[in-house]
Amino acid sequence: MTCDANVSVKVCADFYTSDEVEKVRCQLLPYLNNNKRLPKLRGSEDDVCIRNVRNMVKIVLDSSTAIPTLCVGDLNCVPPIDIRHVDVDAILAELRRYTEKFVWWRNLERRSS
């Protein structure tokens, strides 16, 4: 994972409770490919929370995983976005696009070498 992803993992693990992280882990399970898993981890609560968030970020960034994108029909219902309220879904979608472009360029570079 990149430095930015590690920072995101740290922020999420510090902000969300272990119960909230576990709830999201369980919600992601139906969307995993056959070769992906999110096992129930053991250890200290903080360590398990960080490792769960790290594993979930890897799953979300994997372009082969089809996770539904949430949307809203009426934009007036969406609160304004400022420094305290960020649209994380949009950020993750953009990060996924950049990751896919980077992988494409790296594969192109390897083929030309």
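the 2nd protein, sequnce then structure:
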Amino acid sequence: MEVISSAVDLFRTTLITIPFMQLFLLILISTLLLLFGSLKLALLTNYLFTFYWGFNANFGKIDVVSTNNFSLFGLVYLGFGSMVVMLFLLSFRYKAQQ
């Protein structure tokens, strides 16, 4: 029960500021992709937006080019994010079986 309480407290105290223009572009692009029937691209757009802002919130002040300051968690975060994008791109090769 204490773990849940600490997790709820973390979400209450965390503040992430996302610029309005980027939110507007996300909603616009996602809506257009969904209207034109491209569900996979809409999901990828939302994933990349979440991935970008998750990275920006955690590692925004770190120089990504310099590996001296980059933590192991940052490399794991980028690795898993890259794997998800690669799996998504591979999924375009396969058609849904009906």
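The radius of gyration is 17 Å. Helices lie at 2-13, 20-35, 39-59, 72-91.
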